[in-house]
Amino acid sequence: MASKTRKPPRVGDQPGFRRALIAAVLVVTAIFIVAPLVVIGVQAFSQGWAVYAAAIADPDTLHAILLTVTTALIAVPINTAFGVAAAWAITKFDFWGRRFLLVVIEIPFSISPIVAGVAYLFVYGLQGLFGPALQSADIKILFALPGIVLASMFVTAPFVARELIPLMQAQGRDLEEAATSLGASGWRTFFSVTLPNIRWALLYGVVLCNARVMGEFGAVSVVSGNIRGQTNTLPLHIELLYHDYQTAGAFAAASILAVLAVVTLVAKVLLERRGAGRGGRPTLAANQTVPETTT
User: Fold this and answer.
1) Mean pLDDT of 19-30
2) What is the CA radius of gyration of the chain?
3) Nearest to 201 by CA among 272, 261, 267
């Protein structure tokens, strides 16, 4: 009887190599990810709960938190609507400029956020393209909430679209076309057919978008003016406290963003288990039905 041919060993099959690789990954993770979070937590409470609570209750810190939350409440829904609309247009229709639209959506990932902030200065600043007209109309964009929202929207615009486009391309157009042929309107087709199949990926993109909005520094630092107690978001306020040697206050404020990061990671893992994200795409339900209108 012919002897069985042995397959050549694959890279990583050796127990020693596999253990060394896992150990290296754990060490790097502990040094570059876990250690900074631990340091933030330790330093935030190093002077006791009273100092921590006083730092969080500081009026400038509270204003920075409120401004950050307000920015997220405005920017995230708008970018969510944009992402859904862009993904719907790109995946469900054929039109001239479709590839160009894909490129445009990726632009915020291709340039530095600081460059984006400077670009807004040249568009909405006093010496910018629309600056004189805005000034004559007494409309303030830069160094105010509108400028912060615009900069945050720019850097986070692709998050929802990038999660939805691959999924909607894989799902195809059959269900939507079937619903339309049965007389369903566009809105009913979206809410009854498309949305149930993309809900987890949509929520996944919203979570990532929200985390980036709250943690954005570069573009916002350019358009906000860094006015203490007025236009400082939480990341800018942390830098200001640190430069003023208010270490306890800086780490106390940073702990809020650290908690947000942990919550985002937990939500990300839970959503990935649901099939969202690039690690796994949800499949169409076997009993998926299309809406039918009665005539």
Assistant:
1) 88
2) 24
3) 272
* Residue with the two structure tokens 């996944």: 204
Separation CA 233–CA 219 (nearest Å): 12
* CA separation for the pair 146, 215 (Å, rounded): 17
Read off the pTM.
Answer: 0.82
pLDDT of 93 higher than 70:
yes
Q: Do 165 and 104 meet the contact criterion of CB atoms below 8 Å apart? A: no
- Tokens coding 178: 């079937």
User: Residue 155: which of 210, 109, 224, 204 has the closest Cα?
Assistant: 109
Mean pLDDT, rounded, for 243-258: 89
Three-class secondary structure assignment of the chain: CCCCCCCCCCCCCCHHHHHHHHHHHHHHHHHHHHHHHHHHHHHHCCCCHHHHHHHHCCHHHHHHHHHHHHHHHHHHHHHHHHHHHHHHHHHHCCCCCHHHHHHHHHHHHHCCHHHHHHHHHHHHCCCCCCHHHHHHCCCCCCCCHHHHHHHHHHHHCHHHHHHHHHHHHHHCCHHHHHHHHCCCCHHHHHHHHHHHHHHHHHHHHHHHHHHHHHHCCHHHHHHHCCCCCCCCCHHHHHHHHHHCCCHHHHHHHHHHHHHHHHHHHHHHHHHHHCCCCCCCCCCCCCCCCCCCCCC
Q: What is the pLDDT, as a whole number, of residue 7?
A: 63
Q: Are 16 and 233 in contact (CB under 8 A)?
A: no
| Angle of CA points 79, 278, 170, to nearest 5° | 90
In our burial notation (b when 16+ CB lie closer than 10 A, e otherwise), range 84-122 reads bebbbebbbeeeeeeeeeeeebeebeeeebeebbebbbe
Distance, CA of 121 to CA of 118 (rounded, Å) = 5
Are the beta carbons of 84 and 187 closer than 8 angstroms?
A: no
Query: Sign of dihedral through CA atoms 192, 198, 204, 208?
Result: negative
